[in-house]
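tool_call: predict_structure(chain=1)
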Amino acid sequence: MRVPACDTHKLRRVDDGRPADPTTTAALRIDSRPYRLSRPIELDAHRVLTFLERGAHRVALAAYAGPLLVGSEAPGIVEIRAEISGDVRESVLADASADVLLAYARTDECAYDRAVWMACLTRLPVQSPKRASVVTRIERIDEQVGPAQPSRNLR
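tool_result:
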């Protein structure tokens, strides 16, 4: 990717002589002709997706800080945000334990996601004390957003 000359000063701030981040093995430098970063950057999103691929849902959810750059409407960011959020959602819905699914349901991202809350209800044991709060949440979603389908008795 070619960086306009007017933007190179912004990139150079990354390599201003400060000590390298101790979690990295090499300092990040700006190479020239063309301007580019000296090595790939490890992104949180990549780590989350790697954990999901390994089936480490609890670890992935702990590393997932929520939707990527929520305030950005840049087309590339919107696409990546949707992909990551979708991958997290589908993976957790498909394979995660009841406790991990419940932790995901309690994130801001799932506040009104009836399908996620219904999956929690299905996955929790019938005698689980956690079911009451899940049923209450589904009823609140139905009141505020409307039921996805004709309502049935959840209790």
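agent: The first strand starts at residue 30 and ends at 31. Proceeding to next step.
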